[in-house]
Design brief:
single chain; 16 helices; globular; Sel1_AlgK; signal
């Protein structure tokens, strides 16, 4: 798989790829059907990243022990014009209201309740950061990395992320970990693992997946498949597709937790239904051989077609499904088309 993207290039390219480890000779392997390749094979494990051109996700006003305010309450309900108005009132009443400044920055950043304006978003984030708002610092870090709303400055972006992570901001910890994991040094990998853990404890799904990868590979932490499985499961519970897929693979193979093919198949099926091509291929293979699910060649063909439509072809499956008659092929095509149209 491709190596780590160049961090010095400003993190515009996809960020740190964690190469899959070479399997140990006695490591549990997925059984393969007679005369076929392995039913399952772990996908390339790449840590996802929000570093994409024109990234607009970011700050969220932090939760507090105070009763919900009108501004943030309106934001949560999707009433963005009201949120903008109420946040503005709060700042007029208190020029040091960092939470309201963060909210205005977010509204400008995403174009919610007002015209999208990254420059104004960065201005409000900067004012909020001056009041100690860690979520604003995290968003400023991403904007500096991307050169969005402010001058592109990876070093400044990292400083903002460092400050936010120091304050316990979980998304900042996650993004900073992605930067560190790309250096390849043992010290940075250990620190990246600690930052992933901080973000994972904040229920950031991609961070939970990333931490699971590190435990599976023994990078920055002692190798521990059981902990890897637990973090992949938590990532899956938080909707992280990569974590869901990894957990299904470990569950099917009995790596780090008791083997359970039927439960693994349910995870594969759920991820396949969400449009993941690898999961579609894996569940197709399971239907083809009747592992974890009842054997069903029409379902196998339908999921194989869905994966192939996304560029993931499988010569073994194509060969295994040659015995379908015209009616069965037509049914499989209808199922694949129906699933492709589900948004």
């Amino acid at each position: 798989m491709a190596g780590v993207a160049a961090v010095a290039a400003g993190l515009v390219a996809p960020l740190p790829a964690l190469a899959a480890p070479s399997p140990a000779a006695n490591a549990p392997q997925t059984p393969r059907p007679s005369g076929s390749p392995e039913v399952l094979k772990a996908p390339a494990r790449e840590l996802p990243s929000p570093y994409t051109p024109n990234y607009v996700g970011g700050a969220r006003p932090p939760a507090t022990g105070q009763p919900p305010d009108f501004a943030y309450g309106a934001y949560q309900r999707g009433q963005y014009v009201t949120a903008f108005r109420e946040a503005t009132k709060r700042i007029e009443a208190d020029s040091k209201d960092g939470a309201a400044m963060t909210l205005l920055g977010e509204l400008y950043n995403q174009g919610l309740g007002t015209k999208q304006d990254p420059v104004k978003a960065a201005e409000w984030y900067r004012l909020a950061a001056a009041q100690g708002e860690s979520a604003a610092m995290a968003s400023l870090g991403l904007m500096a990395m991307d050169g969005r709303g402010i001058a592109k400055d990876p070093k400044a972006g990292r400083r903002w992320l460092e400050q936010a992570a120091e304050k316990g901001q979980p998304t900042a910890a996650y993004n900073l970990a992605l930067i560190l994991i790309g250096t390849g040094t043992e010290a940075d990998q250990a620190r990246a693992a600690a930052l992933f853990r901080k973000a994972a404890d904040g229920e950031i799904g991609p961070a939970q997946h990333g931490l699971g990868v590190l435990y599976l590979q023994g990078r920055g932490v002692p190798k521990d498949p059981s902990k890897a499985a637990e973090w992949f499961r938590r990532a899956a519970d938080n909707g992280d597709l990569a974590g869901e897929l990894e957990f299904a693979i470990l569950l099917f193979n009995g790596t780090g937790l008791p083997k359970d093919e039927a439960r693994a198949a349910r995870y594969f099926l759920h991820a396949a239904s969400r449009g993941n091509a690898i999961a579609q291929n894996r569940i197709a293979r399971l239907y083809a051989v009747g592992r974890g699910v009842p054997k069903n060649l029409v379902e196998a063909a339908a999921w194989n077609l869905a994966a192939a439509a996304q560029g993931l072809s499988d010569a073994w499956l194509d060969q295994a499904l040659t015995g379908l008659n015209a009616d069965e092929r037509a049914r499989a095509e209808r199922l694949a088309n129906d699933r492709a149209n589900v948004k």
